[in-house]
Give the backbone structure.
Amino acid sequence: MIISRFLIVVQAVLILFLPGALLTVAAGRGKRAEFRGPGEMSFYAGLISFAFSSISGLILAYLGAFSVPRLALLALLFSLAFVPVLIRSGARPVFSPSRAGCLLAPLLLLGLGAALFFRPVPYIFGGLDPGVYVNTAGHLAREGTIFPVDPTAADLEPGEVLRLAWRHSAGYPEKYPGFRYSLPATGRLIPEFYHLFPVWMAVFYSWAGLGGLFCLTPLAGLAALAAFYLALRELWGARAALAAGLLLVFNVAQIWQARYPTAEMLSQFLLFAGAAAAFNYLRQGKPFWAITAAAVWGLFMLCRITSLLIWPPVVIFFYCRWWKRVRKDDLYLIIPLILFTLISFLPQLFGDWRYFTKSAAQFRFAGAASKPGLVLAGAGIFLAVGLRLLPFRRREGISRAFGGSSGRRLLAAAAAGLFGYAYFLRPLIGDRTPDSNNLVEIGWLLGPWLLAAAVVGILLFIGRERSPAGWLFFLIIAVPAAVFISRKMVHYNYMWASRRLAEAVIPGLIAFSMYPLIVAFRRGRGGRWIARVVFLLLLGASILNSRPLFFHREYRGAAEFMEELSGKLAGAEIVFVEGEFVDKIPTPLDLIYGLKVMPVYYGSDSLEPVFEKLAAPAARAAGRVYWLRDRDQPPGLGAGWLLTDRMVFHSPLWERRNDRLPRYADPAARDGNFTVYLFRSQPARNSRSPGNRPDG
């Protein structure tokens, strides 16, 4: 036990720290990159190690060779190869004493975050997006490959495989929801979504089992808080960063997403960590920061498909930055970002393009993805190129016109008009779709006063801000906000839909809500007191908004339920599953616990030829076929069936609402309540009429 724990610690150091520590020390060579202190340097050492191990882990997973020891070995070999170079160079870390960072503020945020986030949701079932991530990770940790193979496909004809498969709304066949067939003849399955998050879930699963797997999301939430703090400290100082971090840690959507096993918190971490590195580059001008920002944003694009929205802010920002002259040092950021964007298509190259094309189709009628939008975008690009080719004096005149007070007032007025329309008019006279209420719903998650402070902050920012880093931050937030306020694309229930907003929009608006307080704070003693009082009121409102979630835990007992169920099925030749939980139970039984499973989506009446191929010999000879149902008696199919057990899953879930913010837990929630009847086949020699009495 002690040796195994020691090996886990060694693996963690190799995978999560050593490669990045060497590279951050090497940043002291030549054009030295400065760190505010050992705390910031350690953060970037972990970040760079995370980037190296992420790419290595993904490639191993796609090649079917994934394991944590193998990943640690790659990190060790890279580090050993780098040590002689580091020794010869004599590089050392460089700290900036005049800008030394205090560790107390981020430690306070991390302590509060740990108290609120560490009620992880053990969603082990199939059927919903978290289950796709969790079961992909469980299979990857067990088998070393990201792509499962349907064990029943070898016994069936391709036509039978397709006939029995679940049909996704987009038309393609799936073995389980979120696991589509790539090649029905071989049974190869492709997990939906991007796979960076499952790779890290598999690492933590290998270290600490299911408990470790579910703790990854809270840990990612803490890392996101640290990155958010560092990014805002670069922009507006430690006070504003701490204040915004406190509002974020108590935000209802942040708490919710930092508990659910989905990729939002990892995406938020990578977005703001890359932004912090980019802001350091704009301040210091050192290539180390530019390459780090590009690498981290490249990982960001491997995390979720919507992360490609990072490109419009980057293009707009550097177009404006190069308006008068080209800055060649910026290529240290742009060229690696292009390379990492190409790497972000690894899931399509090793899998297929269906998820990418399906997701892109969701933007068809949203913003620039619509046909009129594409025409306008094309015209805008043509105009932008033409303007940039104008003589320098004309470009300088345009810059004075649009960058002066008149241009800023015009932009602020346009922003105010858009906010007013989206919040007050669109719900009444808009497009009459669920998206009409998007900005109002953001106000539910932030609280109306915090949203109002954010709007005021954005308008003040447009009128006053001169910092290039500040405008890059504005673009990073404004682009996804414009897209998802226009069309959120998810309306299952509001806490579920908040996933679209948790990555950038919610933390970005919280950051801009600090801008009026920053302005007031700089106005002298009276302004400082006003800023403090307003901040405390906003913080109190956020705590009241999220308070009902503090002690609630979604899907409590789900992991233990599945562990017990799989134990009762030990030694099964095959398990048939049908009923109201047919989307939930089969996925983990197969991918996490390694059982041969056949979900029965369309009723059992026409299963006789399939049953004959898959189960009849085992059912008649050894009694090792199980049938899980939510009601009495499976069909005969030439075998007898004995009811051996009855299991009940019950967990109060937060009420599912799409018309207001949820307020309480619903003990009768459908997804949190179901009963599983376990039937076992009877050997042919003991065959008798089916009973319904559990074994003694």
Summary: The chain has 31 helices and 13 strands.
